[in-house]
Amino acid sequence: MDRKKLALLAFAVPACALTAAAPAHAGDAAVLHADLAEVNDSGAAGTAKVTVEGTRVTVRIETSGLLADAPHAQHFHIGGKYMCAPPEAADDITDDGRLSTTEGAPYYGPVKVSLTTEGDTSPASSLAVDRMPVADAHGTVSYHRTFTVSEDVAAAIRAGKAVIEQHGVDYNGNGLYDFEAAGKSDLDPSLPAEATNPAACGELTPVPKGGMAAGAGGAAATGPNAGMLATGMVLAAAVGGGLAARRRFGESA
Question: What pLDDT, on a 0 to 100 scale, did the predictor assign at position 213?
């Protein structure tokens, strides 16, 4: 075989090999995590994972310890200090030791997204109890939904400025929301405070790309240099193969 042709073959690395060597980018996707801690001694605790791709948001929430067989309103709050309210905020407006949503607002801001099970997700649905998740017989809420938000809201979530809050506390332990324990809701006097007071809260935090394994000793290279390294290896292999072939053909020529 002509040596020039052989050399060209050696460096004609298949396009698929170079494509495979390029780093895999997941577009502009961002992943965030939150640990939901109890509020108002509700006994609730959970975790949340939020993925943002452009203005498309996917939310997964698993919370236990909530009032069983009852709806639990839940939202993204954005604003204030971008944090869950501290315990002392419970006496900011009413000195009753119970944190209301209004008392917590200076810390986490207003509702920007209503985490309903279907339909509208705007702030207008913040009290759409008929479309909020209902805890099962064990007091667990498993929520999964994908929806779109405005660019401003998507940017705030990406930046870790959103707080997830779930509502509904059975203060007197009678298994339902009533007016006896805490009176009327600060958000809607037709509802009991038990139905709208916070039960769990968590601040969304961006998860580093690659997760906890990123940068681990001996792990495969990631990031922009990974593609360059892989491409170099492919080219090196091609050159080596070409030289070996030249030797073989040279010997047989």
Answer: 43
